[in-house]
Specification:
The chain has 112 residues and is mainly α. The protein is 83% helix and 0% strand. It has helices at residues 9-32, 35-57, 66-111. Helix 1 (9-32) runs parallel beside helix 3. The model has no long low-confidence stretch (mean pLDDT 92).
Length: 112
């Protein structure tokens, strides 16, 4: 289970600070296509993101300093990059599966 951060402005800042290195690592793992490590870290990242969204929806973003707002923008930008990497990864997997399927059909055709 992921860490729960205090319900004050300091806790929100700590949550954002915890998300940024996680997002950087996730982006790296997605680029490397390391499924096992990615899945483990993604679960933690999503838990923190869920906490963050709840707090932002509650209006806590008004308590952030300018520096913390910039960190939040970086975290959200990294999340967008992660989603792009996941989409590319999924497309690669799809293409690999199509290639395997075609190879399998050819093998059956030549063996038959």
């Amino acid at each position: 289970m992921e860490k729960q951060f205090d319900g004050n402005a300091k806790g929100l800042a700590q949550l954002i600070d915890a998300l940024e290195p996680l997002a950087v690592q996730l982006l790296k793992l997605a680029g490397e296509r390391d499924r096992v490590a990615f899945a483990k870290l993604y679960e933690q990242h999503e838990g923190y993101t869920h906490q963050l969204l709840g707090r932002l929806e509650a209006g806590e973003n008004k308590k952030l300093s300018a520096t913390q707002r910039e960190a939040l923008k970086r975290v959200l930008g990294l999340r967008s990059q992660i989603e792009q990497q996941i989409a590319l990864w999924a497309e690669q997997l799809k293409n690999d599966l199509l290639s395997l399927n075609q190879s399998s059909k050819l093998m059956r055709e030549y063996k038959g």
